[in-house]
From TrEMBL:
GO terms for molecular function: ATP binding; histidine-tRNA ligase activity. Its EC number is 6.1.1.21. SUPFAM superfamilies: Class II aaRS ABD-related, Class II aaRS and biotin synthetases. It comes from uncultured Sphingomonas sp. The gene is hisS. L-histidine binds at E82, F83, T84, R112, Q126, E130, R257, Y261, Y262. Homodimer. This is Histidine--tRNA ligase. InterPro entries: aa-tRNA-synth_II, aa-tRNA-synth_II/BPL/LPL, Anticodon-bd, Anticodon-bd_dom_sf, His-tRNA-ligase, HisRS-like_core, HisRS/HisZ, HisRS_anticodon. It is found in: Cytoplasm. Residues 24-328 form the Aminoacyl-transfer RNA synthetases class-II family profile domain. Gene3D superfamilies: Anticodon-binding domain, Bira Bifunctional Protein, Domain 2. GO terms for biological process: histidyl-tRNA aminoacylation. Signal peptide: none annotated. It catalyses: tRNA(His) + L-histidine + ATP = L-histidyl-tRNA(His) + AMP + diphosphate + H(+).
């Protein structure tokens, strides 16, 4: 029979690779609590309209990457490509509005039909943080503080916060017109992809990954020339807040977000360590999104980060080790060892049992498991109510009363 295969672009991880993901999530959970973000859970599947209406038909995510299917009832369902839209749907349909403003965070799988490559998968994992119902620039500052502290705790060095504003709707539409004009006049120099975006979403050309587009992008008009006083004032308050909090940032006047719903603050934390996938965390303010889902006008700001991309950049996580490994010799010893093992674990001591192989093999397994002690239980020792405790670091071995075993392996 042909052996079964995984779905393209999915991952199955054992040991260190899985530990890396867990380490990123643990840091996220720690910092989330420090910043007072509530944990939320949202479904993996939503009605397709939730993503089509928010992310925008002209983005790659909606036009090429969505995992959509018809369910048995004929409804169009999509596996979430990101969290924001689902959280906003819940904000509207689950009455979360009554708690506004809310600071919420979650993490889990996201799905995009992409060409798999290093750091790019079809099922990947994201961290996500959102502040919904708050239009104050302080919300942007707090959210960026969360992101910066997370990256700092993960010791991801060289991640730089690139910051831009997309202004208010008035600013954005004036800038959009100017960009449209600029790119149209040089359309012949643009890549096919960018020419296709020209009419529907000229902002996205700024985001182009095609080298051919870069000279045209570099000479494109910058948003500063179009900022209304209100928009400039908002951006000024965000940058002042960041400076006051000691968060380093760099202005990136052509930074836009791939998704259509952003206003005001847009940002990415970028590194040069992952080649083409240099963005490790990205987000911005999306004051228009909840309305586009049929909810009330609601200001909101958020970010998402790819867990796999962060996991590639952290140090090797500390191995999970057993404090003690039991080696029972003989049948009676095995029963006694089960008891000792259960007692150790109930007391909160990580312990394991080597129940196969000769003595030498079992001792070397205990060593590999990083154990500090081996507890050898033989029939003769049992008759005396004792077991042998071997300190693997010093090689010293001594008899210990069964009642004192826990204390003996806890002691340094
Ligand atoms: P890219 O430009 O790399 O395609 P994106 O703009 O599509 O990224 P976002 O929609 O902003 O990415 O998603 C936020 C984060 O999720 C990214 O910064 C990245 O770390 C991660 N991410 C996005 N797509 C993938 C994927 N296919 N595999 C792994 N991680 C991903
Ligand atoms: Mg993408």
């Amino acid at each position: 029979m042909t052996p079964v295969q995984p779905v393209r672009g999915t991952q199955s991880l054992l040991g260190e690779d899985a530990d890396r993901l867990a380490t990123v999530v643990a840091a996220f959970e720690r910092v989330r609590r420090l910043y007072g973000f509530k944990r939320v859970e949202v479904p993996t599947i939503e009605q397709t309209a939730v993503f089509a209406r928010t992310i925008g038909e002209t983005t790659d995510v909606v036009s090429k990457e969505m995992y959509s299917f018809e369910d048995r009832g004929g409804e169009s369902i999509t596996l979430r490509p990101e969290f924001t839209a689902g959280i906003c749907r819940a904000y509207i349909s689950e009455g979360w509005q009554q708690h506004a403003p809310i600071k919420v965070a979650t993490h889990g799988s996201a799905f995009r039909y992409e060409r798999p490559q290093k750091g790019r998968f079809r099922e990947f994992r994201q961290l996500d943080a959102e502040i919904i119902g708050s239009g104050e620039p302080q919300a942007d500052v707090e959210l960026l503080g969360f992101a910066e502290q997370l990256l700092r705790e993960l010791k991801i060095e060289g991640a730089i916060l690139k910051l831009n504003t997309l202004g208010d709707p008035e600013t954005r539409s004036a800038w959009r017109d100017a960009l449209h004009e600029h790119f149209r006049s040089r359309a012949s120099e643009l890549s096919d992809d960018s020419r296709a975006r020209l009419e529907r979403n000229p902002l996205r050309i700024l985001d182009s990954k095609a080298h051919q587009d870069w000279p045209v992008v570099d000479s494109a008009p910058v948003i500063d020339d179009f900022l209304t006083d209100e928009a400039a004032d908002f951006f000024g308050k965000v940058t002042q807040g960041l400076d006051a909090a000691g968060i380093h940032w760099e202005r990136a006047p052509r930074l836009v977000r791939g998704l259509d719903y952003y206003r005001h603050t847009a940002f990415e934390f970028v590194t040069d360590r992952l080649g083409a996938q240099g963005t490790v965390l990205a987000g911005g303010r999306y004051d228009g999104l909840i309305e586009s889902l049929g909810g009330p006008q609601t200001p909101a700001v958020g970010w998402a980060a790819g867990i796999e991309r962060l996991a590639m950049m952290i140090e090797v996580p500390a191995r999970e080790t057993s404090r003690a490994v039991l080696v029972p010799l003989g049948e009676r010893a095995e029963a006694a060892a089960q008891r000792i093992l259960a007692d150790l674990r109930r007391t909160g001591v990580a312990a394991d049992m080597a129940y196969r192989g000769n003595m030498k093999k079992r001792l070397s397994r205990a060593n590999d498991a990083g154990a500090a002690y081996v507890i050898i239980v033989g029939d003769d020792e049992l008759d005396r109510g004792e077991a042998q405790v071997k300190n693997l670091a010093t090689g010293e071995q001594r008899a210990v009363a069964l009642d004192d075993l826990t204390a003996a392996v806890i002691a340094a």
